[in-house]
Structure formats: C-alpha cells, structure tokens
Amino acid sequence: MIKKAIFPVAGLGTRFLPASKSIPKEMVTVVDRPAIEYVVKEAVAAGIEQIILVTHSSKASIENYFDRNFELETILENKKKFDLLTEITEILPKHVSVVSVRQPQPLGLGHAVLCAKAVIGDEPFAVLLPDVLVKNNDQESDLALMIDHYNQTQASQIMVEAVPDHLVDQYGIVDVAQSPSEGESVVMRGIVEKPVIGTAPSNLSVVGRYILPAKIMQLLEETPRGAGNEIQLTDAIATLQKSEKVEAYRMKGQTFDCGSKIGYLKAVLHYGIQHPQLGGQFKQLIKELNL
Hints:
The protein has one domain (4-289): Spore Coat Polysaccharide Biosynthesis Protein SpsA, Chain A (Alpha-Beta Complex). It starts with a strand and ends with a helix. It has a 9-stranded mixed β-sheet. The chain has a two-stranded antiparallel ribbon with strand order 2-3. The protein is built from 11 helices and 13 strands. It is globular and about 60 Å long. Strand 9 and strand 10 form a beta hairpin. With 291 residues, it is an alpha/beta fold.
C-alpha cells in the first residue's frame, strides 16, 4: 500500500514573482485556502497517511499551516466561532502526519525526492508537485486510481494528460505504443523533454503525479546532473525502465498549473464557482462584470 507522499516545496517560485518574493507560491490562496491544501487533501483522500515536505528555510509558513495554533484556537473558542474553529483544526485528519526535510541546494526535482530517502525507507511512495492542482468531477480521484494500478501491477505510474500538438514543446512527453483511455495505464517506452513540434512521440505530457518504488532512491543517488545542471527525476525513471516496467496513467480530471499566473487565475475561477458557500455569489459577480 502507498502510505507516504513527497511534496517538493523548496523551489523559489520564480514564475510567480513578485508575490513569491515573500510568500511561498504554495501558500498563495485559491479562493479561501492555500493551493497546497488542495493537493494535500487529494493525497489524504487517496489513502496517504504521511506527508513529507521537502522544504527550504524560507518556507516555514507551510509547516506552520499544517501545525496546530493553540492561541488562535483558544480565541475562536472563546468567541464561540465554532465553524471557523472546526475548519482550522480539521485541515488534516488526526491519523495523518507531516514530516519536513530540508533540501540544502536547489539541485532539481530528482534531488528533492532523494532528500526524503531516510523517511521513505523501503516503501513505495507518491510524489505530488504542489503547484499543480488536479480536479476530479467524479468520486474516485486520479491519484487513487494510480495507486490502484500500482497495487495491481507493481509498475511505477506516471500521470499524463493530452495537450494540443502545437504545445508539446513546452512539456515532457511520454513515448507509448498507443495512447491509453482516460483512467487507464500503458507501458511507457520513454520520456522526451520538450520535443520539437512535429517530432513528439505522442501528445501526452507528464502532469506532476508519480507512484514510484523505493528503488528509485538508489538510482537517484547514481544519477549524474543533467538538464540545468540538476538531478532530474526523469533521468532516474529512464534508468528504472531498463530493469522494470513504468506505466503512463492517463488522467480523467483537469489540471491547473498554479505555479504560473494564468494557471492560478484559471484555478481561482473554477474552484470559485464551485465553492459551497461562495459559488453562487461568485457566479453572479461574473455575470455582473459582463465580460
């Protein structure tokens, strides 16, 4: 069973400057809660019981958010604001723990994952990029389905989504014999980083959700620096493919890249109109703007 998930949150968020100069991009709010809370809840709903933050000294507010604030709780209790008290005390279920490890140098996603080696031990695990929100309209999430596929096949799972052909040069694109149906997995032959338009092996881009075996940690230790002089997770996955199957899981839901400004605005719009308390008013506001 997959019970641990790594959240790489040490990045500086340069695509979100100037806001990310003093606020971690993961803590920028989507409607009424930080973006990372949506991703953590996605993980918890899929059965994850330990959240591993791979963090940086400037990101203490993320750790604080998932910790208890007894002073605030006492004030809310004394003022009988029990609805708000419930919201802040139930951000995480009691059975879910949060562990933080530092990434001492900005050496890429592969290095960030490797920083959590001691916490992972010999267990398979998930990796969730916290600036990518995945919104599912049905009850079973894509992450839960990926975990199911892993439990059935013991093959690593890489989440992918279809992108327009003219945008393939902006993503890591998987090489597969045939494109899977949504909610299904197929064996990958490889990943091509930002292929030239017209040369891409498919139109399926890597999304930011992975289910990986503990073995990947050893491979990351042996992976030399690659693109950007960083340790790339995709390079270690390519090495893993030489000894065992890696599958591409085609997602059913919708993604929002909250690391980019336009992706963030799209997320605010979509999550805003479906908010249980604010959705109706937000829809009315949009109508009044007459855009």
